[in-house]
Amino acid sequence: ARAVRRLVRRTAPDAIHCGKCLPDGLVGLAARFWTSIPVWTYVHGEELRLAATSRELRALTRHVLASSARVIANSGHTSRLITADWGVAPEKITVLHPGVDASLFTPAPADADVRARLGWTGRRVVLTAIGPNEPLLKWKISGPGARASLSALVAEGMRAVAVRINDSSGVAGFVLPGDRVDVLYTREGDD
Fold it and tell me: Looking at residue 169, what is its pLDDT?
């Protein structure tokens, strides 16, 4: 808390931008309490879905949204959710689509020296988004000591096949959000 107060005093921002409702929005509201600087909260649709699963998360999210001077939605759909399900006035919401100009920002080629310095051996696959200056956590990247991922086990240009044994065993959790998969539907009988 003291570090946040010192930072706000030293930088004297016109607004405090929170990258998501929880926990960032709560920290922003605490800073606003000490300084009266308005808080702008960026909202992702998936965090609203998660917040709706718990009474506590729902209450905290509702408080952050209601107390923010501006709510920035990552899509028109999220904007509609914020208005319809969370009671935020449409004039308080701005839609700002996340994106990158792919002509300016492209992945760098693999660098063997950097990979060796990081201890990355073999093929590794990013399992979830990693932002700038965000720590590389082992659960975000496949490989030794990290979560298993079917995409990390399949060679470049190859495909994997899963054979259903029962309704839940399929690929046993190896297909993760963001993996690219082919879907093959088969059925029996005349239904």
Answer: 45
pLDDT for position 119: 74
Alpha helices for 12-146 (secondary structure H): 26-35, 45-51, 55-67, 76-86, 112-117
**CB environment 119-158: b (16+ within 10 A), e (fewer):** ebeeebbebeeeeeeeeeeeeebbbeebbebbbbeeeeee
In this structure, are residues 91 and 57 in contact, taking their beta carbons and an 8 Å threshold? no
Q: Which residues contact 9 (CB under 8 A, 6 or more apart)?
A: 35
Other residues' Cβ atoms within 10 Å of the Cβ of residue 62: 16
Q: According to the model, what pLDDT value does residue 72 have?
A: 94
Helices (H) and strands (E) in the chain, counts: 7, 4
Task: Provide CB contacts within 8 A for 57, sequence distance 6+.
Answer: 22, 50, 51
Reported in sequence order, the residue ranges of the chain that DSSP labels E, i.e. its strands, are 16-18, 39-43, 70-73, 93-95
Tell me which residues of the chain have a pLDDT lower than 50.
Answer: 164-172, 191
State the Cα–Cα distance between residues 117 and 96, nearest whole angstrom: 37
CB 45 within 8 A of CB 21: no
* Consecutive H or E run containing 91: none
DSSP state for residue 104 in the 8-state scheme:
T
The verdict on pTM exceeding 0.85 is no
pLDDT at 165: 46
